[in-house]
Design a protein that fits this description.
Mean pLDDT: 90
Largest sheet: 6 strands, mixed
Distance between the termini: 36 Å
Structural class: alpha+beta
Helix content: 10-25%
Number of helices: 10
Amino acid sequence: MYGHYSVTAVGGSVRNAETGRWSYGCYQTSLQNYTLRYTTGYHHSYNECMVCDALDSAFLTTPKQLASVLDPEMNREFLDDTFLTWFEGKNKLLSCPDVMVDVSKEVEVKPEQFVTFASKWNLNRWVIDGGQDIWFGCNRGTAHVSRHLQCYQLSGFAVKPCCMEELAESIKMFMKMCEKHNIICEIHHGTLLGAVKFHGILPWECDADITFLSGNYSAVKSLGEQLSSLGYTLSEASSHQQWCCADGRIAGGAFRLFSKNWRIELWGQYLMDSELRILKGEKPSKILFAGEWVNVPDNPGLYARNRYGPNNLRHAQHWIATGKGEWDLYNPGNFSVCPVAGHHSCLDQFCADGSLQFN
């Protein structure tokens, strides 16, 4: 097999001697947007062997093939680093299930053993079939980056999973706080567009927007101490003062809410759809956002269409990244050319339409 099909390495199936569990030991690899995924399975086979990107068993290769990719900085990680280097080089690996390797026990990936590997490949997350979901450099993961996370990305790059999670959790936290204190709030602008298209954060987000009822200004301000105890900073936006009046109601007012790496704009509105629903004794419209139902304008789909114009379900990067004005019409259906061609966080590797590819 090795000589005939120009294969880089050949492995086999694995049987766990402790449990008796057998598997064919073939993974397909995906490296996109700071996330490495190992998915069990195969697309093609040669004779009785599966074509794989990574192997779960011992394998045969030549000293020359191995020496060309071995990184002396790697310890426990050297096998996965070798597989990923071969994957990037489009090398072919095979797993032949009729050749079985006995192992004494199942090996669980321990994040602290893969810090060098995560740093080298700029990973935030590693998902392995079988239930392992490992995070690096996030609040809940194993740190491999001592510097401040760079969450705002230049034109052409997607936002890191750590950063998307932090922003989503911050938004949900504030929306829950609004509900607890009877403050009327709704997600708006690009935050709402992300909820409509992805049920979460836009993968190219730069900030977040939440509106609150201007009449609740003092109540929002009073949340400052509670937010501070949770690690957030709430500040009044002096350039957006409240004013009187719109249809006899106080209007305007704004705050900025800062998490560790993000800014959330809070905008006062004198009239909101959620309030009108509540006054009628009805429930406000809600949308599923990162696993939670949060308040939105009455018809979020219509709002997104009116705010962002034709073809709003197709994608375009944030106006800040593209140099446009906040209220300029978007040109959806195209991503900016990535400054580092081929990097796994480049947006131009994705089709600028559809949501499933970003899952």
